[in-house]
Design a protein that fits this description.
The protein has 115 residues and is an all-beta fold. The protein is built from no helices and eleven strands. It has a three-stranded antiparallel sheet with strand order 1-2-3, with no helix packed on it. The radius of gyration is 18 Å and the shape is elongated. It starts with 15 loop residues before the first strand and ends with a strand. The model has no long low-confidence stretch (mean pLDDT 87).
Length: 115
């Protein structure tokens, strides 16, 4: 195994080769180190649970009940959130918003749908 090769997505050193692809068991990312980056365009757009592209200022609806960490509050499924802002959250929370009755918080785009 190539000891210098790391996963380009999560930087894990525990990668293995399967045919021509390298696979990271921690984040399940697959890549070909011989292919140039120009061949594989990276889609940096944020998408909701249905695959719709989200943009700053959109309104979204929460699709399931979400517990607020460090609190006894719950964001109920069906809650409409207006005026979202897209952020580059390292922990996967890529939507910044204000929710009535709760306040400012970050959401993951996989738990919302475009309204």
């Amino acid at each position: 195994m190539n000891s210098e090769l790391k996963c380009p997505k999560c930087s894990s050193e525990h990668v293995y080769q399967d045919a021509s692809l390298w696979i990271c068991p921690e984040c399940t990312h697959e890549w070909n180190p011989g292919a140039s980056d120009a061949e594989a365009p990276q889609d940096q757009s944020v998408r909701d649970s249905n695959g719709n592209v989200l943009a700053d200022g959109d309104s979204v609806t929460v699709i399931k009940d979400l517990k607020v960490k460090g609190s006894s509050l719950v964001v109920k499924g069906g809650t409409k959130v207006k005026g979202i802002r897209l952020v580059d959250g390292a922990d996967g929370h890529n939507i910044s918003c204000k929710i009535d009755g709760i306040g400012a918080m970050n959401l993951k785009s996989e738990f919302v749908k475009k309204a």
